[in-house]
Design a protein that fits this description.
Its EC number is 2.1.1.228. It is found in: Cytoplasm. It catalyses: guanosine(37) in tRNA + S-adenosyl-L-methionine = N(1)-methylguanosine(37) in tRNA + S-adenosyl-L-homocysteine + H(+). The protein contains nine helices and nine strands. With 225 residues, the protein is an alpha/beta fold. The protein folds into two domains: 151 residues, Alpha/beta knot (3-Layer(aba) Sandwich); 56 residues, tRNA(m1g37)methyltransferase, domain 2 (Trp Operon Repressor, Chain A), CATH 1.10.1270.20. The strands form three sheets. It has a five-stranded parallel β-sheet with strand order 2-1-6-5-7, sandwiched between helices. The protein has a two-stranded antiparallel ribbon with strand order 3-4. The chain binds adenine. The site of adenine has 12 residues, from loops.
Length: 225
């Protein structure tokens, strides 16, 4: 999978891709991530990329022309399955969206900044808009890193144990059950007997019950779907 990220803060984005699972995916050549500094497509000596909004109001808006120049250059090199815009005024990212995106070959992610982008960018180029939650970040960079992490770990071959993504929270609309490791007792707090029993059908049943119970307590909305 190839991901092209268009951003005004490329340095802010680098680190998560140099660690853990994303680094591994890139090293194994299962994912390729390219950063494009929007400023390089800006106008004039100051490489202008934003301007005041028509109608007045606080905050600058990213202009269409620099973004169009960058996207059109990328599109002249290959075909993209999705052009995604990270923005809080969009449907919230969930596991189903991450699963779908992990099957794509080429995607562009555009990150907003300031007041966002000229609406005509969204109308002309964007095929999918994603928020990572009901709060506003300074820019879409961290949101793009979150999206990439959620997607890249699902690309077949990235996780060592192929089944482990399937048992993540949300894969079946349930939260994960509790997990324990050694010691089996800590300051009087014991690991549930069933997990030490070696009875795997019983363990599976217990985990399913716990997952359901946890979901009902913490995220009952997931059970409504
Ligand atoms: N940009 C700013 N806030 C955001 C959010 N919550 N999700 C995605 N992109 C954003």
């Amino acid at each position: 999978m190839r991901i092209d990220i268009i951003t005004v803060e490329p340095d802010l984005l680098q680190s998560p891709f140099n660690h853990s699972m994303m680094k591994r995916a890139i090293e194994k050549e299962l994912a390729e991530v390219h950063f494009h500094n929007l400023r390089e497509y800006g106008f004039g000596n100051y490489r202008q990329i934003d301007d005041y909004q028509f109608g007045g109001g606080a905050g600058m808006v990213l202009m269409i022309a620099p973004i169009a120049k960058c996207i059109e250059k990328l599109q002249s090199e290959r075909t993209y399955d999705e052009i995604i815009y990270m923005t809080p005024d969009a449907p919230t990212l969930n596991q189903a969206t991450a699963n779908q995106l992990s099957l794509k070959e080429n995607i562009i992610i555009l990150t907003g900044h300031y007041k966002g982008v000229d609406q005509r960018v969204r109308d002309k180029f964007i095929t999918k808009e994603i928020s990572i939650g009901d709060y506003v970040l300074t820019g879409g960079e961290l949101a793009a890193a979150v999206l990439c992490d959620a997607v890249i770990r699902l690309i077949p071959g990235v996780l060592g144990d192929e089944t482990s993504a399937l048992t993540d929270s949300f894969q079946d609309n349930l939260l994960s059950p509790p997990v324990y490791t050694r010691p089996s007792e800590y300051e009087g707090m014991k690991v549930p007997d069933v997990l030490l029993s070696g009875n795997f059908p019983k363990i599976e049943e217990w985990r399913n019950e716990q997952a359901y119970k946890r979901t009902q307590e913490i995220r009952p909305d997931l059970l409504e779907d």
